[in-house]
Amino acid sequence: MNESITNEVEEDGGILTTQTFASLGLCNTLSQACERLNWKTATKIQAAVLPEALQGRDIIGLAETGSGKTAAFCLPILQGLLEKQVGRRVSAVILTPTRELAFQIHQVVQAVGQAIQATSLCVVGGVDRTSQAIALAKHPHIVIATPGRLLDHLKDTKGFHLRHVQYLVLDEADRMLSMDFEQELHQILDEVPSERQTMLFSATMTSQVQKLQRASLTDPVRLQVSSSKFQTPQHLLQHYLFIPAKYKDVYLTYIVNELAGKSILVFCATCQNVQRLTLMLRNLGFPAVSLHGQMTQNKRLAALQKFASQQRTIMLCTDVASRGLDLPSVDTVFNFDLPGHGKEYIHRVGRTARAGKAGQAISMVTQYDVEVFQRLESLLGTKLPAYPIASEETVLVLLERVSEAQRLATRELKEQLAAQKDGRHRKKRRGEDDDEKGLEGMLEKELKRGYAAAGGKNKRRR
């Protein structure tokens, strides 16, 4: 199952082309649907993928985040469903690593698919399985899912199968594999027909992805929009900020205040730090919201909606938000904790400077991060400039206020923990499951750690 063609499209300024969707072979109905969504011309990855995918070829699509990969695989599927006039059955499966990305893809499929009356369903964890099973019994044309929950339904939901699937998409394949979904992916591959069209999309190509490609694709064409393995968005300004670890919280507060009114995404290594810093910033009067893997699905979606609609201009998050999410209003990405690998840095900073817009990324570097930072610069092939900031004396004027905000955050977390324990006992008496157990454990652990003023040196990752 070797690649027969490798087409590499060089980045020469912006991601859009002058090619219309109709000129790439898309039918009138779907071209008009794209027009209604204000998609006037195709992006480079879409222009590369559509002609091949519409011919039924298996695809390996490699492009930087924010390049339009979602439409690149959704449009060929929808045109195929229209041409083949398939009945009420699951004909396409799109697999993604995170719930948020699955919901986002589902919104795109719904927006374009309504033009041809295509039905779709999002199947992810954190949502009631019974209601999903009822919806699956209606045989939607397209299922967008995370691997674990899809496999649960294949095992436990009576009558649900993938024997009629004609299209399979593996989106953010490298992330799915890095999250240990390899076994689930191979189990799902065993459930779908071998005669199908498969499209694998990712921002980076790893040895694991190459192994998955050999197992799942037949004579694929590889389409790559970039000239560098580790490429950041073209209009992205990148800086580092070298500071003592004990003053990380103070410097974060200073910069957030300097960027007041702008949309800021702050990445932390752990759920604990996200929760702590969110409460601290709120106590300082900043409109902050959090997003991490220990939150319930409803709370995660609510946080995303508030940030995307700019009701909140600061979102603190773990790497659960680093992939695929389309947040076009992000002005600044702030790495409170450096990622452990260059690939995660690429995906984090890819949340800004999307679709040809400008953006900036600022990374905190402490005395504990020098080696990781030097390795990152080596992967990027460039030396990052220092972020222009006032003297340490000026920044530390905020120290007393920040310390007080940390104390209040500690008290609030204790109150949350007490409330969750009380709710847990009530649920046990009623014989219900406790969905907040993970968050409770996280808060207990954080309170025992005692909140170092700087957030400390985090060795444990998300």
UniProtKB/TrEMBL annotation:
Listed EC numbers: 3.6.4.13
Keyword Transferase: no
Domain Helicase ATP-binding: 50-223
Keywords linked to the UniProt accession: ATP-binding, Helicase, Hydrolase, Nucleotide-binding
InterPro entries registered for this protein in UniProt: DEAD/DEAH_box_helicase_dom (IPR011545), DEAD_box_RNA_helicase (IPR050079), Helicase_ATP-bd (IPR014001), Helicase_C-like (IPR001650), P-loop_NTPase (IPR027417), RNA-helicase_DEAD-box_CS (IPR000629), RNA_helicase_DEAD_Q_motif (IPR014014)
Residues covered by the Helicase C-terminal domain: 251-395
Domain of life: Eukaryota
UniProt name for this protein: ATP-dependent RNA helicase DDX47/RRP3
